[in-house]
Design the sequence.
């Protein structure tokens, strides 16, 4: 039998309340016999949704918490002060080794702050990036970083490129992943101050397959496997991807419903369009991992439904199985070792 | 009869060569009797495409130019040195009052550099923003700035908000246009350093209707009329909009073509989808104006076809008719006057 994997699910903070978390947990337990789930949040409410459902009671536990972190409070302060919130209690489970992974649909800022201040970064990791997968016409691409590291430094971006490459190689099985930096033109001299100072560092970085700049219009075409950018731009790309895909698919539905003739046509293409919609739906890809920590943290979308929770559980199993954070820590350490070896060799010459 | 409007079309630099410019010019002449077109570029090539076509020869002239500005050269240097390029010669026509407007599908950098250094900014304008309209589920929104002003200062962004408001009010007929700044969250304390320092200035600016932050996922829903952002992020938004819409519409086509059943369904919804496609096509909205100059400059997409050229001609007529740059200059001057009046009033108190 496989090793037990213990996953905390934060039931507070998502737009759809505790119900989707509870239902996702029950389904996760059914699908994966090695999973043990810990739900943090309001015990009474959780029990209400568990009532009458069938699940293995030995593999599900509840930790009652009394505080809530809201979207409107400064995240670092909230994480420091609200010790009995579902997020802080859940992350402490990971910190203390009582759980392997933490899943939340709560406020990004608090998840990022908690990941860094409670669980902590792996040795050698400068900042922890939030890195979701984006659908493309080819294989999905990793967008790194969409987190809270706004106004990042060039060295941090280079490390994100390394972390993203390790992730795509080890978790997604992409050989020699192509890394590109988001830019407003393809030429090396293009860009803002940050891109201009990061570009030569990426070019010089031997451990990644840097293919140069990428304009955002090429992202959906799968031109790169690791889409590198600082968090502000990453956040804009991620949310525009979601918003525009949702809007366009909605408009298409509207176009189909606009006449009797097109309604009939719509019936014929329904199943083909459904496949497309699911490719662009968040539930397909699970959540965005916060990488480079001493434990797994997966941020799922605020409006996640049961499907996203189930995908995130599956994702955590892969992460534990592949030891993603261990690989990142090791990968970065190897590079440092190689660099210093090279430096000594150069010094000796 | 309406006053003659003289428009230069730069036939060099677009992906589809001089042919689309020539065809667009001929169609523009047909549709608008008040238009006079000046084509700059290789006379021999232009004549090749004009041959056998019917048009009013008194309203079309050619200025032969011998140099070309390529994508790979630094734009400011190119504009300064290549005096006999189609772009520089064309812009000089505007500068010297021999033409009212300049249209080009050439390199953005060179168009922006030429706009500033050859035609020049209107009095009071700190930087000239490139501001295309984006399709939304409601009325189109103005994305300002997508130009070359990367790493912009907060004061410049505030002026872009004012310029964008004047544009939406006077040209697009939007009353009290809602201005929002692109951000990674809705709360005032969210954002990178630039957004955080610009936000309070926008709040204090009386001449605009500032509604706060906008997350990129809300842009397609028409939540704001003026989408304010610095040029790097603006460029990313614009190109992702294009790339993602193109990709999604392509995937839908693929889904329809995937089976006989869905192919039949596709025939029924063809006309409805066509309407949607045209709403998202660049040709519908014409080009992006470079605002705040002493003359009109419209940048059309590099891969523009005849339709975009025709739309850009129509757009120039509206701009001339409404005196967009005059209104911007006047609007900004009025504000300065009002502010200094207020300042003196305050000082007198």
Sequence:
């Amino acid at each position: 039998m496989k090793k037990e994997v213990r996953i905390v699910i934060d039931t507070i903070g998502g737009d759809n309340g505790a119900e989707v978390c509870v239902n996702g947990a029950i389904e996760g337990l059914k699908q994966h016999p090695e999973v043990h789930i810990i739900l943090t949040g309001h015990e009474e409410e959780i029990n209400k949704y568990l009532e009458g459902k069938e699940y293995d009671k030995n593999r599900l536990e509840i930790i009652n918490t009394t505080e809530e972190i809201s979207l409107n409070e400064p995240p670092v302060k909230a994480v420091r002060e609200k010790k009995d919130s579902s997020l802080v209690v859940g992350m402490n489970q990971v910190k203390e080794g009582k759980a392997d992974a933490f899943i939340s649909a709560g406020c990004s800022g608090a998840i990022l702050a908690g990941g860094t201040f409670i669980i902590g970064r792996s040795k050698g990791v400068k900042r922890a990036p939030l890195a979701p997968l984006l659908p493309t016409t080819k294989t999905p691409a990793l967008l790194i970083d969409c987190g809270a590291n706004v106004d990042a430094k060039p060295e941090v971006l280079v490390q994100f490129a390394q972390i993203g490459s390790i992730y795509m190689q080890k978790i997604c099985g992409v050989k020699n992943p192509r890394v590109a930096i988001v830019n407003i033109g393809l030429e090396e001299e293009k860009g803002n101050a940050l891109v201009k100072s990061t570009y030569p560092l990426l070019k010089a970085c031997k451990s990644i397959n840097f293919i140069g700049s990428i304009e955002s219009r090429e992202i959906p075409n799968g031109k790169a496997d690791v889409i590198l950018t600082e968090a502000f731009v990453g956040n804009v790309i991620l949310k525009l991807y979601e918003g525009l895909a949702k809007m366009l698919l909605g408009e298409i539905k509207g176009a189909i419903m606009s006449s009797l003739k097109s309604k009939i046509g719509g019936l014929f293409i329904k199943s083909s369009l459904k496949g497309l919609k699911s490719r662009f739906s968040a539930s397909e890809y699970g959540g965005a991992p916060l990488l480079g920590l001493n434990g797994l943290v997966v941020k799922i979308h605020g409006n996640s439904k049961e499907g996203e929770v189930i995908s995130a559980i599956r994702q955590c199993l892969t992460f534990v199985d592949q030891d993603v954070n261990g690989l990142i820590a090791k990968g970065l350490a190897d590079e440092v070792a190689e660099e210093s070896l090279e430096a000594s060799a150069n010094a000796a010459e």
